[in-house]
Structures are given as structure tokens and as C-alpha cells.
Amino acid sequence: MSSLQLLTLVLLVSTVAIPVVTCRQWCMAMPGTSDEQLQANIDFGCSNGVDCTPIQPGGTCYVPNTLFDHASYVMNAYYQSHGRIEDACSQNVDCTPIQPGGTCYDPNTLLDHASFAMNAYYQSHGRTEDACRFEEENIKTLRSMSRERIKRELPPVQEHIDKLRKVVEEGNYYGALQMYKSISARYVTAQRFSEALDILFSGACIELEHGLVNCGADLAILFVDTLVKAKSPCNDEALDRIRFIFKLFPRVPVPPHLVDVSDDEDVQNLQESLGEARSRVENLTSFLRAAIKWSAEFGGPRTGYPELHAMLGDYLYTECPELDMVRISRHFVRAEDPEKFASMLVNFMGRCYPGEDDLAIARAVLMYLSMGNMKDANFMMDEIKKQAETKNPELSESDLIQFISYLLETLQRDALPLFNMLRVKYKSSIDRDQLLNELLDEIAERFYGVQRKNPLQGMFGDIFKMMG
Prior knowledge:
The chain has 21 helices and 2 strands. It has 468 residues and is mainly α. It folds into 3 domains: 2-153, no CATH class; 156-322, Tetratricopeptide repeat domain (Serine Threonine Protein Phosphatase 5, Tetratricopeptide repeat, Alpha Horseshoe), CATH 1.25.40.10; 351-468, Tetratricopeptide repeat domain (Serine Threonine Protein Phosphatase 5, Tetratricopeptide repeat).
């Protein structure tokens, strides 16, 4: 908010005698302001109720296309829509003309009423600079008064939902996105969170239904952000909406790696398909990661609601062109569904990385154990052995799988010396992935109280947990 102090007021006053109400007070960026500060002003205004469609490409105010001009437009729009109406009227300004029935009541908009009141205040206070000062305390007062006025003026939310649906159906997807953001922000400002959530949920669904993944994901993330602002509990109503949005994200089969193609056009098409797949995965990941964090903060398990982890892990596995089994496993071990996780790992066998089947299984089991979850670790291992008998009968002969089997038995007893002996005996297999050693250090600490020699050990795993 401090960036607003960079603004200076430019008073455009006619030299001829004209009715006071037509005089306008405007706000513009201060010359010499850095590009970073100008962009910060634009971001602030566009995320706090200003319709920024006119400064988008093709918009009526896009030209001149400079940060200075765009920032001036945004901040003036913000200033005009947050006029100090009540404050001005408390300083011996006659606001009767903008009351219902008054000569200047129409047009009945906050912008026009603010313009009348602020100009009257300015005229009656000697046209001094102090009469136009726009500082931090003023902003706080304006925001409080504006919130109360918005509460009274906002129309029923269904009117916006119906109107915006038509905008999307007419093909103005980007314009609709900006309108969804600006209108929902007004309801958030008025602390009418349930209505803001209705608008954002509707917008996310409509945009996704029309194949606009980027737009739909933006609104889906805003939906979760609003859940956080409203301090909404992690309950069935909110989770049902998250599930519904998740199901609308497209699933498009994409080759997991480059295959033989006949010509350059085929290569280009494949590359475009892979790029679109990555974009879908990134958008869905941002949405569900935000939802997981919200669920952990407002009533769900400390690591996030299990079903949300399952949804993200499944989407990453089926839709991501480059499989990251570590990342996928991080979610599945928190999903409380070891049977589904086992089926996924069996399906993974030989899919893309020959010779790494046992490595993926070992990582998964050790992740369960590092969390102290012996039950699911044993269940998943038994399930994998059962399902893999026909698909990969050699799996049980792997040194790494033998190590995991012995480890599960060892952890059921107080046998730290045996635990250490196993690590030494199977060191060459364990060293195939540094993450296995780190997970084993965590397991030793959890089950036997062994402190890590290096306090930085475990950081790798913790980073993944935070990123997950």
C-alpha cells in the first residue's frame, strides 16, 4: 500500500464558470517513479476491484502502451472508485445533491458521487494541496467507508454469474477473466465471502468447460485464496467444489517421450502437445497445492486432506509427459490409499524406465516408514508382490526388494544393530539413489532415536514435502 504514496494528484479545473459537479479530480503516477513501483501499482489496483480490461491489448486505453500510462489509468480508477464521500461530507460539505432525489444523485455511481463530494471539498477549502492529500491513513479510512458502501450497493450475485456466463459464451474469455477477478474482489472487500466464492467457482467451471485451462486455473486458485481469506473450514461443501473443479481439468493422452515421427510437422505437433500437457499439469498442480495448504490450515490433517493428495498424485502420473516418481510418491503416501498406490507402481513397471521398477517401490516403502506408517508400508509391499507375480516375476530377486523385505521385519523389533548391518550389506543397492539413504536416516531417527550426524541431512526430503 505504501506504493500509493508515489502518486500525485493533478487537478484539472476549468477556467470558465461551470457547474461544480462537472469539475473532476484525477490521480496519476508521479514522474520518475521506477518501473518496479509502477508495476506494483498496476498489480495492486487490478487485484483490488479495478477493471483493467481497457489497458489490455486491444483495450480502449491500451495506447499509449507504457507502464507510466497504464499505472496512471489503474490508480486513477482505484482513486475515483474509493472516493472520500463520508469524510468530505463531514467537513462542512453539502452532500444533499447526491442523496436520493437530489439534483446530482444521477448517475448513481460511487465514482460520480465521489467526484462531486471531493471536488466540493476541494473548492470549499481554498483549493489547497492539503485538500487533495491521499495518504496511508486516508486510504485506511477510505477502505473502511468504501467497504460499508459496497455492502449496500452490490447487486445479487446471481446477476453477475448470469452476465459473466454470457460474456464467456460470446467468446470474450480474457475479458471475462478480468471481470471475474474484479467483481469477486469487490465482494471480498465487502467481506461477502460466500458470494465471492460463488462467482469464482462459477467462473472456474465455465472457463474450464470451454477449454480455457489457464483462465479456469487462475479462477480456481483465486477460489482457494478466498477460502483462506474467509477462513473457511475444510468441510464437505468446500471439498465438493474443489472435486468438481478438478474433474473439469482435461485429461489428454500424450506420448510420455518422443517417438518415431515421419516429418517435421509431426515433430512440431508432438512438441506442441507436450507443451500443452506441461501447462495443464502446472495449472492443476498450483490449484491443488493451494487447496492442500488450505485444508492443512483450516481443519484437515497436518499434511493436508488425503483425497487432495490422491487427486494430485493421480493427475501427475497419468498426465505429466515426464514422470517424476519421487514427486508422485510424496503425494500418494499422504493419500491413505496404499492399494491404489500399489496398483500404480505395478502399472509403472517397464513403462518408461527399465531397471528402475525396484527403485520406485523402495522409495515408496521408505517414504511410508519415514512417516512412521508401518501398516501401509507392509500392506503396499504385500500387494505389490501379489500383483507383480505375473507382470514382473523377477522383481522379488532384486537386491533392493530383498533389502526392503528384511527391513520391514527388522523394524518390528528393537534391532538397531541388525538395521545397521542391513545398510552395510546392501549399500551398493541403496546408493543407487541418495534419497534412499536420507530416508533411512529419518527411519533410524524415528524408530531407534538415532540423531543425524549432519543437521542438514533431511533438508532434501523437507524441501520436497514443502513443495508437495
